[in-house]
């Protein structure tokens, strides 16, 4: 078991300052960015994928990929937005590869242990996952950020790089599609 | 957005967006609240905290250290020869001339994907950028002309995976890259490039008053 390092003073640094120091050679400082965003983006990944195991893998892959390409992050102070895009693209790619009828019984044991708390499981969860699967990737992303995460449109626009009007269209169509899909859910 | 959707009315969407709305019918409110319930249920089921710090740092320590970014050191200037341009006195004429120049230059060049230049004023040149990326979901242009912001200048997808944008550039040297899917930086495969000294390459173009610079 690894002891978690205590880096209290480094938590005051901006994303840009951390990125620059990591690129200068202070590799361990990258943990500050991981700690800073893993909760927020982990929740997002679970919502987008409907599976905690897959979300954990996607999140880890996104952080590692971001580190390996850190020199290409043109605006270190916007690391969060850049990381979000890497994670969102990874989630899109995983959804294209995940079978829509994945059963909990097929998942590794540790995933079953977390099934109750972190997956769209059970009869209702299956219905929700099916409803989200029916959305386009753009609608699903916008719906999760706006409705599930509760972010204002301006924040979602900044995160995704999509204009507010286009986001509203996606969210509205997602709502309409969910209403039709879950019409029988009581 | 004023047209009615198949589904919720615009008024219900405004209610769900937290915007001013007319009073809802009982049925509209029930259905709108159902959406809120759905969102809340997804949020509750996604609430478990994921902790990947240790696993990420193990991979980070095993990885090769990322190289310094290209903008740390100034680029060495390098002249690039562009296709001959047509002098145009106004923006309106430039729009027409751009189309005509495109046809002229398409016949003249065997490689239409190279940056296309058209002079609009003595100090500004319209340059068309193009990237062939059939599997891309988005392509943006970023460079020294917009402080390398990766989400500001979108290319439009035209046909067969071609992405293009035409922007005015001031006379002088400009370096740039394409940003594919919001995360992958790609030099222009059809433009001159400059080694940044750190293993990377930036595309570079130099525009003069007439859009042509000798190399």
Task: Please characterize this protein's 3D structure.
- With 186 residues, chain A is an all-alpha fold.
- Helix content of chain A is 67%, strand content 0%.
- Chain A has 10 helices and no strands.
- Chain A is globular, with a radius of gyration of 18 Å.
- Mean pLDDT of chain A is 81; it is low at 1-6 and 99-118.
- Chain B is α+β, with helices and mostly antiparallel strands and 215 residues long.
- Chain B is built from 4 helices and 10 strands, in the order ααααββββββββββ.
- Chain B has helices at 10-16, 26-45, 53-62, 91-108; strands spanning 116-121, 124-132, 139-143, 153-154, 156-157, 162-170, 172-180, 184-186, 193-195, 201-207.
- In chain B, strands 3, 4, 7, 8, 9 and 10 form a 6-stranded antiparallel β-sheet that branches. A 4-stranded antiparallel β-sheet of chain B has the order 1-2-6-5, with helices on one face.
- The longest helix of chain B is centred in the N-terminal third of the chain and has 20 residues, at 26-45.
- Mean pLDDT of chain B is 71; it is low at 1-5 and 71-114.
Chart the SSEs and their pairings.
The complex is a heterodimer of chains A (186) and B (215).
Chain A: H1 15-23, H2 30-49, H3 52-68, H4 79-97, H5 109-113, H6 115-118, H7 122-133, H8 137-148, H9 153-160, H10 164-181
Chain B: H1 10-16, H2 26-45, H3 53-62, H4 91-108, E1 116-121, E2 124-132, E3 139-143, E4 153-154, E5 156-157, E6 162-170, E7 172-180, E8 184-186, E9 193-195, E10 201-207
Antiparallel strand pairs in B: 1-2, 2-6, 3-4, 3-7, 5-6, 7-8, 7-10, 9-10
**Describe the biggest sheet of chain B?**
6 strands, antiparallel
Helix and strand content put the structural class of chain B at alpha+beta
Distance between the termini of chain A: 46 Å
End-to-end separation of chain B: 51 Å
What is the helix/strand order of chain A? HHHHHHHHHH
- Give the oligomeric state of the chains in this entry, treating copies of one chain as homo and distinct chains as hetero: heterodimer
Q: Indicate the structural class of chain A.
A: mainly alpha
Query: How many alpha or pi helices of chain A?
Result: 10
**What fraction of residues of chain A sit in β-strands?**
under 5%
Global Rg of chain B: 25 Å
**Based on DSSP secondary structure assignment, what is the total number of beta strands of chain A?**
0
* H/E element sequence of chain B: HHHHEEEEEEEEEE
| Major beta-sheet overview of chain A | none
Estimate percent helicity of chain B: 25-40%
Average pLDDT score of chain A: 81
**Uncertain residue segments of chain B:** 1-5, 71-114
Tertiary shape of chain B = flat
The largest interface is:
A-B, 74 and 53 residues
């Amino acid at each position: 078991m690894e002891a978690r390092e205590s880096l209290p003073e480094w938590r005051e640094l901006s994303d840009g300052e951390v990125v620059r120091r990591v690129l200068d050679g202070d590799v361990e400082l990258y943990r500050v960015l991981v700690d800073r965003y893993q909760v927020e983006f982990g929740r997002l990944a679970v919502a987008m994928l409907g599976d905690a195991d897959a979300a954990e893998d996607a999140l880890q892959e996104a952080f590692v990929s971001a580190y390996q390409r850190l020199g290409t992050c043109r605006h270190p102070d916007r690391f969060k937005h850049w990381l979000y895009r890497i994670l969102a693209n990874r989630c899109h790619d995983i959804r294209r590869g995940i079978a829509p009828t994945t059963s909990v019984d097929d998942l590794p044991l540790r995933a079953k242990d977390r099934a109750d708390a972190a997956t769209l499981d059970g009869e209702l969860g299956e219905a929700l996952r099916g409803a989200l699967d029916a959305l386009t990737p753009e609608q699903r992303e916008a719906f999760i950020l706006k409705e599930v995460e509760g972010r204002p449109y301006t924040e979602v626009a900044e995160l995704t790089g999509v204009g507010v009007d286009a986001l509203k269209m996606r969210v509205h169509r997602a709502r309409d599609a969910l209403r039709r899909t879950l019409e029988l859910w009581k | 957005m004023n047209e009615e959707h198949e589904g919720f009315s615009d008024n219900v969407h405004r209610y769900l967006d937290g915007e001013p709305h007319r009073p809802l019918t009982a049925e509209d409110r029930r259905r709108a609240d159902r959406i809120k319930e759905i969102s809340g249920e997804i949020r509750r089921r996604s609430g478990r905290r994921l902790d990947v710090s240790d696993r990420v740092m193990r991979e980070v320590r095993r990885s090769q250290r990322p190289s310094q970014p290209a903008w740390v050191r100034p680029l060495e200037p390098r002249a690039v020869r562009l296709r001959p341009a047509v002098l145009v006195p106004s923006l309106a004429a430039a729009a027409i001339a751009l189309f005509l120049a495109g046809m002229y230059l398409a016949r003249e060049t065997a490689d239409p994907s190279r940056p296309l230049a058209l002079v609009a004023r003595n100090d500004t040149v319209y340059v068309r950028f193009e990237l062939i990326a059939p599997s891309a979901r988005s392509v943006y242009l970023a460079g020294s002309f917009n402080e390398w912001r990766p989400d500001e200048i979108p290319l439009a997808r035209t046909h067969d995976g071609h992405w293009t944008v035409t922007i005015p550039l001031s006379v002088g040297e400009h370096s740039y890259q394409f940003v594919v899917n919001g995360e992958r930086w790609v030099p222009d495969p059809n433009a001159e490039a400059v080694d940044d000294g750190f293993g990377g390459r930036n595309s570079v173009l130099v525009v003069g008053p007439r859009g042509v610079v000798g190399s």
